[in-house]
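Appendix C: a fully annotated inverse folding record. The material below is reproduced so that readers can follow the format used throughout the book. The structure is listed first as tokens, followed by the designed sequence.
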């Protein structure tokens, strides 16, 4: 069982800054949190080694790449086929985020498509995977907050 790592307000501030711009320099971080560069480096390395910071990445705007239809798709499957379906979905280029969930749906997939027709084809393809019972697309209409990226 994973236990939560206790972090202080300075760590929280560092994390907040890095979430906004992972390319922020140690010097800029140090100025903002009123510590030395060395102290900030130690804190960031500790956050990395403890798994609080998993990786640094670029967050891409799908619309800027021509993906005008984004779907948060709930997928229900037969229990004995769950991992088979997940394995197949993991291989699909159009699936950008994939999790096993509890609640209304067994799987949640974030899908990027260039058109409504492509999205419809993708959902039909998912429905045809052996073990899939039903597909529940929720089409993104507007992002109102985007702070966390899991």
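Designed amino acids, in order:
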């Amino acid at each position: 069982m994973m236990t939560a790592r206790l972090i202080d307000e300075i760590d929280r501030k560092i994390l907040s800054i890095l979430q906004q711009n992972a390319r922020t320099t140690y010097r800029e971080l140090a100025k903002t949190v009123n510590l030395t560069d060395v102290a900030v480096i130690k804190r960031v390395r500790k956050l990395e080694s403890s798994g609080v910071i998993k990786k640094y990445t670029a967050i891409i705007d799908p619309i800027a790449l021509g993906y005008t239809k984004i779907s948060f798709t709930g997928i229900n499957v037969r229990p004995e086929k769950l991992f088979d379906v997940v394995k197949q979905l993991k291989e699909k280029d159009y699936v950008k985020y994939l999790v096993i969930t509890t609640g209304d749906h067994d799987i949640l997939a974030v899908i990027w498509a260039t058109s409504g027709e492509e999205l419809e084809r993708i959902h039909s393809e998912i429905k045809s995977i052996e073990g899939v019972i039903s597909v529940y697309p929720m089409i993104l209409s507007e992002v109102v907050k985007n702070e966390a990226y899991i």
